[in-house]
């Protein structure tokens, strides 16, 4: 379908959170504060892990990469949404729309795979502690970081390959604050039902498989911890429960949106905001700021900065 060059649509209209001017200004201030908090905490975690030798372990290596992906995931669309709160016409160019689709699937797909790698790391550390150093080698850790990026790029390219050549001649209104694949593909001036089924099934299959793998890993870990009675194990159970909560909050909206791609639910817009804006701030709060080693390293970094 080589009709991309004949498309008459040069831009799309985004339907962000609606409301009177005062409410739009409130959204602008609220999401600006939220986005800056995401950047601050996630970049601080990356800097802390890089600068503190005691944190140069596989677990924190993966955690620093999770924080970096969270920064990317919140950046592909959030700054555009914040600026749009100040504008009457919330539009995005065709090329910009395609770029948003590409980066959304790169970062979201990459984070899914990285969360699976982090769950595997915790499984080895708790269930096979004597073999941890041998299993979680530098080579494997590097693969766990490079692999999600490669998976995300390949997944995104496979999606973009089909949609970029579709004919778009109107309408051009996207009922979201960014160009989401199921919403954009429905605007094509051709029958895309089978293509929608194929592409959406691919996305939801990837999400469901990685989510199931995560639940299996955490279930095995929790069963192992239940057999060991100690204060440390009780704390580990609490921490893992918090991890499962964050994982569910990330996967839940993604699976819901792509499970019913042909419907137009009012909740879809809020769920999209949740996993692209709120979850990237929850990750550092749960994975890092509740960790004493990370907090201690942050204090050391702050002390060094003050003394210098």
Give a quick precis of the structure.
The protein is mostly helical and 308 residues long. It contains eleven helices and three strands.
Model description:
The chain is 73% helix and 3% strand. It has 308 residues and is mainly alpha-helical. The chain has one domain (12-307): Rhopdopsin 7-helix transmembrane proteins, CATH 1.20.1070.10. A three-stranded mixed sheet has the order 2-1-3. The chain starts with 10 loop residues before the first strand and ends with a helix.
Give the arrangement of secondary structure elements.
Elements: E1 11-14, H1 21-51, H2 58-75, H3 78-84, E2 91-93, H4 94-127, H5 132-135, H6 138-163, E3 173-174, H7 181-185, H8 193-226, H9 231-259, H10 267-288, H11 292-307
Parallel strand pairs: 1-3
Antiparallel strand pairs: 1-2
